[in-house]
Amino acid sequence: MKKKEVYNEAVSGDEGFSAGDGYPSCDGEPCANVADDAEDATATMAVGGETSEPEAAVELEAVVAEWQDKYLRLQAEFDNYRKRTLREKMDLVQTGGRDVLLAMLPVRDDVQRALAAMEKSDDVEALRSGVLLISQKFTEALRQKGVTEIEVKDKDFDAEYCEAVARFAAGEEKKGKVIDVVQTGYMLGERVLRFAKVVVGE
């Protein structure tokens, strides 16, 4: 109760709080000074905590210039890549079959020699043997390039590898099977290079 009375006396007294006690009074000059000081501090904080407009503009221009440079460099690199790729593609189209053609030239040489021998010799058996050797050499050259023959005769017809050009009555045992090959099919690696044209039994 004693503390309460002292507090009431301090509050209800005529003297009040003076500016000298550390508490501003709006009736006198100290209140205006404090308001001015607060406004100055706020301005100082704004300048110290944030970049001014001229500096921000300069910084923004530097960032934009940096990204423009990166964009131009990237565009130039892409153009060079596109031109190089196009040039390599054209070279591949023009010279892609070079290896195959080089492998075929020896076979053509053998054919030319066989033709010359046919004009000078009547030995049919020798000529037959020579042609057989040429055929084997040609088949081996294709095999080295990944070209293999599709074996379909006497097997079930498979549209993935064969093209039926005719059907022939061959009995129940041959029904649905390849009974003759009109044109040999070939594979290039795992892909069909040419479908085999066959006759299917029915």
TrEMBL record:
Primary location recorded for the protein, binned into one broad class: cytoplasm
Gene Ontology cellular component terms for the protein in this record: cytoplasm
GO biological process, one term: protein folding
Keyword Chaperone appears in the UniProt entry: yes
Similarity field: Belongs to the GrpE family.
Complex and partners: Homodimer.
Protein name: Protein GrpE
Organism expressing this protein natively: Alistipes dispar
UniProt gene name: grpE
